[in-house]
Amino acid sequence: MLFTETERVFADAIRRLAYANPFDEDEQAAVRHELAGIDLGQAEAEQQRPPIDAPLEFPFADEYVRRNEALLLKLQSRLRVQKSELRPDERERFEDLIISTVYLRHFSSGNLIKAAGDGTERLPQFRQLRDDMRQWTDVPLTFSEFYTRPEHTFAVFFQYRLAVSLLEGLIQGESRPVMRLRAAIWHSIFPRELRLYGNLLYERMHEVTTLILGPSGTGKELVATAIGLARFVPFDPKRERFVEPFAGAFHPINLSATPRDLIESEMFGHISGAFTGATKDREGWFEKCKRGHTVFLDELGELAAPVQVRLLRVLQNREFYRVGDAEPRKFEGRVVAATNRDLSELIAASLFREDLYFRLCSDVIHTPTLREQLDASPDELAPLVAHVAKRCLGAKAQTEFVERLTRSTLEWIERSPSMGHAFGWPGNFRELEQCVRSVMVRGEYHPQPRHQIVRPSRATDQSASEPSHLDRVVAEFRAGSLTLDEMQVRYCSLVHAQTGNMAETARRLKKHRVTVQGRIESQWVERFQSK
């Protein structure tokens, strides 16, 4: 046996920590708590290697490195005198200790990401990782390819750290819904089995199509950007740089902003003479999207039926045709799509192909609304406003000006009950940004005329002379001041307030339960119940 029982427990905990989703707070906390209680008796062994010079940003990373390295030294000594072949589970345990140690030593801070720039910079730091890998694998043991090709290990580790940085930078907020969103995005980049990814799936993840669902203004393009930019790029050990730049690998197409008669040409390209005005051959986005790159199809629900058929072929056979051409072309990129439409309703209305949906639904991400985030963590509003204020004022803005605009916006929201997060923001983050900009320019924000804003009473008792919430909705309906989405939310919430049961509400409305649930808002249910 290579490991003692205590060492095996420690090594298995380190493996779970290394393979855990870095944005799954519960899993991370549980494993760290377990590790803290394991005593390996390493006081002397820890002195066998010099202390690490570089500071580590990950919590407790330096402690894990010291404990890992001390254990690895013991294991190496045993391997050199051990005659029998290791069992597969022990070999994997030893390999994973090496991997977690090398990653924490070289990638736990974001410094290397900054040094890499756009991917064209030379990175002599690779040599340090290569030397570490050689040191720890210098034992009579046959290792898999991931451990014998340090340039590949370097590329995978770099992608891992880049993904962490992108998710922390692009997806703002620390509420539970945001952490769940980051965790969901993570698995669109890395599958749960990281060992399988490092040895095989790094070449296959472009075949996974991701569908992003959520209301308007909830950051669906930011999610797609994170997935598209956090890609695997091979590393060239001789030139000590990545084989291609990271930039230019993300190709967004807003389908709702593209004229319908041009969408096919924009997506798939065309040949000369394919239609009036096609005077020369033209590449489409699918052809420009090289291996490892990502095409982002925004507003997927707007696709016409003929284009849906073409897209289905891309996802099924990984090939497409230019408009007017009979020669198939290979597609080696990745497809990420998004929509704020209810695809189940579009399918029921024969406006969206069911077979296309089932090609898209293997990896689905739901973006939370601003209201969901603030209901979970009301204190999130201030840092979110501060983030938007900094973006509105620009990179050169001094801290005092950012704080002043943040304070002014929060005061305006507090003074305007109808603006409060508890009543919903139809535009979500996009509307929050418009609110900050409007306060910056005018000192106030009015998304609609004041007389159209419903101002629910904060009193516990409602006088007989005061109109009920239902009366107000009826008045808004007669005035024609409600949008269709607002009317659906009000009515679905009213029926649910009457039934108190989701199944009965769906039966009355003759809609699928999932569709109805997405149209119900708790604050309106409470208002109708209070009468």
Would you write up a description of this structure?
The chain is α/β, with parallel strands linked by helices and 531 residues long. It has 4 domains: 5-202, no CATH class; 223-366, P-loop containing nucleotide triphosphate hydrolases (Rossmann fold), CATH 3.40.50.300; 370-447, no CATH class; 469-530. It is 53% helix and 6% strand. It has helices at residues 5-19, 25-36, 61-81, 88-107, 111-116, 125-136, 145-148, 150-170, 176-189, 194-199, 220-229, 260-268, 285-288, 305-317, 343-348, 354-360, 370-376, 381-393, 399-415, 428-442, 469-479, 484-499, 502-509, 513-517, 522-530, and strands at residues 210-213, 235-236, 241-242, 250-254, 294-298, 319-321, 328-330, 334-339, 363-366. Helix 1 packs antiparallel against helix 2, helix 1 crosses helix 4 and helix 4 runs antiparallel to helix 6. It is globular and about 85 Å long. Residues 43-59 and 449-466 have low confidence and may be disordered.
Taking the alpha carbons of the first and last residues, their distance comes to 71 Å
Helix content: 40-55%
| Approximate strand percentage | 5-15%
Number-wise, the strands total 9
**Continuous helix count:** 25
Q: Which regions are unreliable across 5 or more consecutive residues at pLDDT < 50?
A: 43-59, 449-466
Q: What is the C-alpha radius of gyration, as a whole number of Å?
A: 28 Å
Assembly state (oligomeric): single chain
Number of separate domains? 4
Cross-sheet strand order for the largest sheet = 4-5-8-1-9
Shape: globular
Largest sheet: 5 strands, parallel
